[in-house]
Amino acid sequence: MTTDPVDLTRRLIQFDTINPPGNESACARHLGDLLAESGFAVEYHEMAPGRASVIARLGGGTPLCLTGHLDTVPLGAAPWTVDPFAGAVKDGRIWGRGASDMKAGVAAITAAALAERDVSGNGRGVILVFTAGEETGCEGAFHLAHDGVLGAAGAVIVAEPTANAPYVGHKGALWFKARTRGVTAHGSMPDKGVNALYKAARAVTKLEEFDFNVARHPVMGGPTLNVGTMASGLNVNSVPDLAEVGVDIRTVPGIEHARLLEQMQSYLGTEVDIEALVNVGPVWTDPAHPWIGEVFATVAAIAGTTPKPETATYFTDAAALVPAFGAPPTVILGPGEPSMAHKTDEWCDIALIHQAVEIYRQLIRTWG
After folding, report:
1. Which of 30, 99, 216, 312 could be disulfide-bonded to 170 (CB atoms 3.0-4.6 Å)?
2. CA distances for 8 relative to 11, 12, 49, 102, 215, angstroms
3. What is the 3-state secondary structure (H, E, C) of 9-41?
4. In CATH, what is the architecture of 5-170+282-367?
5. Is the pTM value of this prediction over 0.85?
6. Backbone phi, then psi, for 23, in 5-degree steps?
7. Cβ 35 vs Cβ 48: under 8 Å
8. What is the dotted CATH code of the domain comprising 179-280?
9. CATH 3.30.70.360 occupies which residues in the chain?
């Protein structure tokens, strides 16, 4: 069965899967039906009503996993000059929310798997995993991992936007809320209260000085910490009794998130309570791994570029799927334009979609 990846990208964009609320089920069913018609064994797994992920399998042995997410981010406050849900084609690009992040990648995976169904069916096989809820912390992928429904995979391709450059990992993300409490009082009598905002300000000053005290990763560099939000008080003439600070930490391999949270709690002291919001680990495959070498050679032959070891700046579902699969080699490689992710008037280059299909097909063939 042959599927035009451009037509499929357009169709997927026409499903409004903005997260929140997500509503990925209709999009998942469309892909599942398409794959089931060609003999794939298809399963749907709901993490919440209307929020389904889909797993499609073909062949035996230890399969190659190709994965992508179905949800997108909101449109933003800036007005769009194109219909974000039409999937318009102009100037050699497909336009719309999710064009690059990452419905073009999902379409390219699907088109490649359908084109190589005979190879997969008679060889080691493929497993396609399309998830709900990635944009808010890989919820759909963690749901699949926790339910134990994934089975095995010998290698993983994540079709996030890389303009078809192969990335060998990404940093982890640990987002937490630091909360301080006080006692409210009239603003004219601050001595009668306890100001939670002062406590939060002291915590922020300490966070600015925090030292991870770990060696830099040879490709990812060092971990980072950013204080992104701070909120406190209901009115100017009251002593605030609650303050909240939002913190974004990006980690490298070797940093254990549970231990880091304990370290943060100890560092900030008893005036601060910490609550994790997003907790996804780093992903890394040694570029010297033979399969990564095969991926690099395939990209070089088809795209005409010479890949070098690099990693994504964003996190991906690989943080949940790769540990569940037993830590197979993993590459992040998709047709989307990285700079277009989450942007107004998002687009994806059509030539890169066709190129991604050829790369995926070759990797499926050599795997099979």
Report:
1. 312
2. 5, 6, 25, 12, 44
3. HHHHHCCCCECCCCCCHHHHHHHHHHHHCCCCE
4. 3-Layer(aba) Sandwich (3.40)
5. yes
6. 50, 50
7. no
8. 3.30.70.360
9. 179-280
